[in-house]
Specification:
This protein is an alpha+beta fold. The protein contains 17 helices and 22 strands. GO terms for molecular function: monooxygenase activity; nucleotide binding.
Length: 551
């Protein structure tokens, strides 16, 4: 079947590949650009039943809330149909220092004797009317409290297994910032349902060939079941195969393996030890001899895995490390082995093709960059979509598309580079010397020049907004601050102490946060109770608010 359009018809988008990347992009573009149901674009997604979804349980960044809301997905529906729970940040164990020799393996939340830990919360550092607290924390105004505990109450809430909101709070809004953990396969099914409801055409089939025209752009896709398919814009969501951007268009892959060593993972899903077990509302990332384990709590099970460097260990040892971390619940369960290469295409938009998701690039799941990059791509494609006035000849169309591609590639390329810096920050500040993996990660030769320069500056002043170009960044200054000072980085502000004259105000702010923490703990439900209530009844305002809305 060849896709045909009448004279003056809508622009056509063909998305190749499903999964989270394909269906999130399809749903967002359908909502933003419109479809045939609303007189907008003509969007088709083709996927093969022979190709599975890579996801083994996913984490996200808080931007996913605005993306889902923009698509029009009810938050309670998303939570139920994706087996989702809430995520308030990442709890890092044993990254700064090796565990004590006599320390037992731990899965406990919060502080555990013999293990170093810190928290990267999603809330920004507290500031109401007082001064910015970071300089005063560096100068000792908060005593010996770790940075994240001093400037936000979110760590105390998460350590207590409280949710970030209540069932009476509005969808996608809460007292505390949050994202989600979810089942990737179930999310893809939900996004497919919503995209089709919005007017996306769904084809099941296999793309056998990509035919290029004389200029090197995609002329058509040849499929086994539907013949030739054509479009104005092709979106490659074919995962690591990168069938269009890599195999057909030959866009080189830019590896980052000399900076980020991890290239494999073993994953295992396990049940809770009892049905009413607390659900952590953060990802637990525990460092080991040649990588780190993730531990994600869904409503009915845990998603766990060990991300590691094949240069520093082997698959059998990696499986042993993961099983030891999990304990008895791992017995009799098979692990799933995943191989990957950290890096990205040196161009993401070429001619009339854009790569989204794994086809464009991939980094280990540390800090959940995968879904965020899909979101960014979908937003940018919607913003840059080459509508063009009617009557453009092919040369004008190609010129407009080329200009769009250059802008897109500059922004996306810079974003990938900055992510590399942020991920490396987690490793290069370690004081661990107990294995070659950690010694190599701390080697200055493996640190990008851009990050090395920033660290030199931050030795004498904390990270600030002028260190970052907003449109290039996935992680804002607060995230760098949480990781820097969680890892024990030293910023010497003593020579500038005279500039910070509001020490008493800052002490008052620090004390105020400690004072309101018990109130926050008492007002927020347990994470499991919140999830189960929302699954049953959704988000519902209290009766008084409901009555007021009817008047």
């Amino acid at each position: 079947m060849r896709m045909t359009v009448a004279e003056g018809a809508r622009r056509r988008i063909l998305i190749v590949g499903g999964g989270t990347a394909g269906w999130l992009t399809a749903a967002y573009l359908a909502k933003t650009l419109g479809t045939g149901l609303s007189g907008g674009t003509d969007i088709t997604l083709i996927e093969s039943t022979d190709i599975g979804i890579i996801g083994v349980g996913e984490g996200t960044f808080p931007t996913i809330r605005s993306t889902l809301a923009a698509i029009g997905i009810d938050e309670a529906r998303f939570l139920r149909e994706s087996s989702a729970t809430f995520k308030q940040g990442v709890h890092f164990v044993d990254w700064a220092e090796a565990p004590a020799p006599d320390a037992a393996p731990t899965q406990a939340l919060g502080a555990v004797p013999g293990h170093s830990h810190y928290f990267h919360p999603f809330n920004f550092p507290h500031q109401v009317k007082g001064p910015e607290l970071l300089p005063y924390w560096l100068l000792g105004a908060a005593g010996d409290l770790p940075f994240a505990e001093a400037v936000t109450l979110q760590k105390a809430v998460a350590d207590a297994c409280r949710g970030p909101k209540r069932a009476i709070d509005p969808p996608y809004h809460a007292p505390l910032n949050y994202a989600y953990h979810f089942d990737a396969n179930r999310l893809a099914v939900l996004l497919r349902t919503v995209a089709v409801e919005l007017g996306v055409h769904h084809l099941v089939g296999t793309v056998d060939g990509v035919v290029l025209d004389g200029s090197g752009a995609v002329a058509r896709l040849d499929t086994r079941e539907h013949g030739g398919l054509t479009a104005d814009l092709y979106i490659d969501c074919t995962g690591f195969r990168a069938q269009i951007i890599g195999q057909a268009l030959k866009v080189p892959f830019k590896p980052w393996g000399d900076v980020l060593f991890n290239d494999r993972a073993v994953a295992l899903q396990v049940p809770y030890d009892r049905p009413d077990a607390p659900i952590p509302s953060y990802t637990v990332a525990t460092a080991h001899e040649a990588g780190w384990t993730w531990d994600i709590g869904l409503n009915d099970r845990r998603g766990t895995g060990y991300v590691y460097s094949s240069r520093h260990t082997d698959d059998a040892r990696a499986e042993e490390v993961l099983r030891r971390y999990i304990g008895p619940m791992a017995a009799g369960r098979d692990v799933r082995l995943l191989k990957f290469e950290s890096g990205c295409r040196n161009r993401h938009w070429v001619g009339n093709c854009v790569a989204v998701g794994l086809s464009g690039g991939f980094f280990e799941p540390l800090e959940s960059t995968g879904i965020m990059l899909i979101e960014v791509a979908a937003h940018m494609i919607a913003q840059f979509f080459p509508w063009g006035p009617s009557g453009l000849d092919s040369a004008q169309t190609a010129a407009a598309m080329a200009a769009t591609a250059r802008t897109y590639n500059a922004l996306m390329g810079a974003r990938y580079d900055r992510i590399v810096d942020f991920l490396k920050l987690h490793y290069c500040l370690t004081r661990r010397t107990d294995s070659a993996y950690w010694r190599d990660n701390a080697d200055p030769a493996t640190v990008p020049d851009s990050l090395r320069d920033r660290l030199a500056l931050w030795a004498h002043r904390p990270p600030g907004r002028f260190d970052f170009v907003a449109d290039h960044e996935t992680f804002l200054p607060a995230s760098y601050q949480y990781v820097l000072y969680g890892m024990g980085f030293k910023t010497d502000l003593e020579p500038a102490r005279a500039l910070y004259r509001r020490m008493e105000e800052a002490r008052h702010e620090f004390q105020g946060l400690r004072t309101v923490t018990p109130q926050a703990l008492s007002s927020l439900p347990s994470h499991r109770d919140l999830v189960e209530e929302v699954y049953r009844n959704g988000f519902r305002p209290p009766p008084a608010a409901q009555a007021g809305s009817r008047r």
